[in-house]
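I have been asked to look over a protein record a colleague put together. The record follows directly below this note.
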Amino acid sequence: MSIETEEQLEALRAAGRVVAEAIRAMRAEVRVGVSTRELDEVAACVFARAGARSGPQLDYGFPGTSCISVNDEAVHGVPGSRRLEDGDLVKLDVTAELDGYYADACVSVPVGRAFPGYRRLAEASRRALYSGMRAARAGVPINEIGRAVETTVAGYGYAVCRDLAGHGIGRRIHEPPNVPSFHHPRLGQRLTHGLVITIEPIIAAGDGEVDDTDDGWTLKTRDGSCAAHFEHTIVVTDTVPVVLTA
């Protein structure tokens, strides 16, 4: 969506605050032995207090409040009985709907004494997110976001998962435009002031190819390499973006 009124901006800010609070609360509970279902219950409690609903549940019937993916699970991991182990990298991906408006964010969190390579992968994704946000200005082609993201990721020696992308958001989780994390030559349309999008580098230590899994939701890296994911929902302006999920 594109913001046209202050009321819309404030509604999106409110949804973004719920997302940020849920991620903070979940992150505080990340430890060896906790199950992904228990982490999801933390998000559900935050949502209940705020009067918010899970975007993935609402729009797609997802079997959890949040998407929680571990190690080679790139995105859309289903919360369940799996317990986190020392060295894991867990992705906490939260989308909230509040009063008809959506916001979406993700962090990658090392568990215990996480492998140095996993920590470096997560840092590459985080830095790539901020590279993409710096490129997101009104009048700039959408594919410049992808160029900035991929340049940062490649500098670390990792690969973007090209089948997965950021997107417009506002009244639904997924709205136009598509916001890839690589320079797509056909996406030359220019960003406009007030456009609400997510930027979300989903990257892998291997070649970045992903496959479906038997649960019908989770996507894993084809080569079994670890994946990392950071994301914010932003509003495009003429200068620096407004970050709704910080």
Notes: The chain has one domain: 6-243.
